[in-house]
Design brief:
The complex is a heterodimer of chains A (about 140) and B (about 110).
Chain A: E1 2-9, H1 12-28, H2 33-54, E2 62-69, E3 73-80, H3 109-116, E4 119-125, E5 128-136
Antiparallel strand pairs in A: 1-2, 2-3, 3-5, 4-5
Helix pairs in contact in A: 1-2, 2-3
Chain B: E1 2-7, E2 11-20, H1 25-38, E3 42-53, H2 55-70, E4 75-78, H3 82-90, E5 98-100, H4 103-110
Parallel strand pairs in B: 2-3, 3-4, 4-5
Antiparallel strand pairs in B: 1-2
The chains are: A alpha+beta (about 140), B alpha/beta (about 110).
Chain lengths: ~140, ~110
Amino acid sequence: MKNKIINIKSRTSGLEIMNEKLAKLAEEWDISKDVAFGMNLALEEIATNIIDYGYKGKDDYDIVIRFTLEKHKLRIQIKDGAKEFNPLDMKTPDDLGKPLEERSVGGLGIHLVKKFTDNFSYRRSNNKNIVTLTKSLD
Amino acid sequence: MEITDVKKENAIIVTINGRIDAGSTESADKYFSSLINENENNIIVDCNDMDYINSSGLRILIMSLKKQVAKEKKLLLCNLQKNIKEVFQFSGFTNLFNIELDLESAIKLLN
């Protein structure tokens, strides 16, 4: 098992650092392009939600991300100190099959997290929000 | 991310190179807004070298499509990479957008 922990600030430059770290790790850990793509998407959606809804756009808070390579899966844990916020409670789109006029322009983020991960969970512990994403490497 | 465009007779061909991610959605948003506000043309987005798109990027595309449709103009996509195609399928975008296999067939469709 391998771990890598990074600490980013709640701002766009933090997300950029996060994306670069994930790309680098994927190379180091020999993770396929497809898995790296899906996990990047999922991670970006979760971290963006933390910044926008948890920290309400305030740019000097911390988000701690732990990447864990297990035997057959990649696990990413995202921890923040914002008020209680469960991304799984967010509304997911109910208009996916609808024509353009009836489609809203947003709200796809959490739906995509579910699609690109095998497991997506949330817990509140010691005043922290902890989201865990896993993806099989088989 | 890099965006370039070239005007052909019946469309503006927009080429996206790289990633539409947290670091580039703002400039992609500005680019598409002004492109559509300042032009009355059909648009083809060539995604051959677009490696990644997040949900903010999807939002930019669907907003652009809505604006084009309101002007009775087309917005076509072509050359989608496998992972991008999957994102589009999961998002229900394959029913909304005209997605062509390559640039040639996208241009042909507009003729």
